[in-house]
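Extended Data, panel c. Modelled sequence:
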Amino acid sequence: MRTRTVVLALSLVFGLTLTGCATPSAGAGSSGSDVPAEPTAASESPVIADPEAAAARAQAQAWVDSAVLPPEAVASENAPLAFGTYTAWPCGPIEKLEAYWTIPSMTVTQAANWLMAHPPAGLMSTIGRPYEENPAIDGASVGFIPQLDAQEGIVYSVARNDTGVAVKAEVAALTASAVCPTPPGGGMWGAPGQG
């Protein structure tokens, strides 16, 4: 009989302990009603982003914002067509963005040459001379970098569509601690937008 009393007492204590864990007391973050408690300071504090990544992201966004396109260009949130190009940025860590436009009634070479003649603020072209007009050309790239030998900036890909051309801007900005690996076989990395 005594064992039964001990087991019953332990069961009662265990049951009350579980109930105490499941139900907050009035002074422990609960208002005592069905209204949710105010969040604690820990849940209100923002997640602190990596400052280097944030600075690189801000630089990439500044380059996108400084992009100069022809007046008739129309911005698009999504790729207006499937571009057959991709820029591989060899260095990192890096922050990347993309932007898209369509430009009616322009050929690929006209659009590429217009972009080359209107660099984004503070960037220089990686293309030495304008493209020669050729209606058969259905794609071209124009790169812009902040200084010689840089592996960041903007690469525009221009592709023909049904009404003119579509433009994709691939934008990349290096973080302050970014490193560039040695290219396979030695040598140097080519400038962005040169193939």
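Residues 1-46 have pLDDT under 50 and may be disordered. This feature is highlighted in the accompanying rendering.
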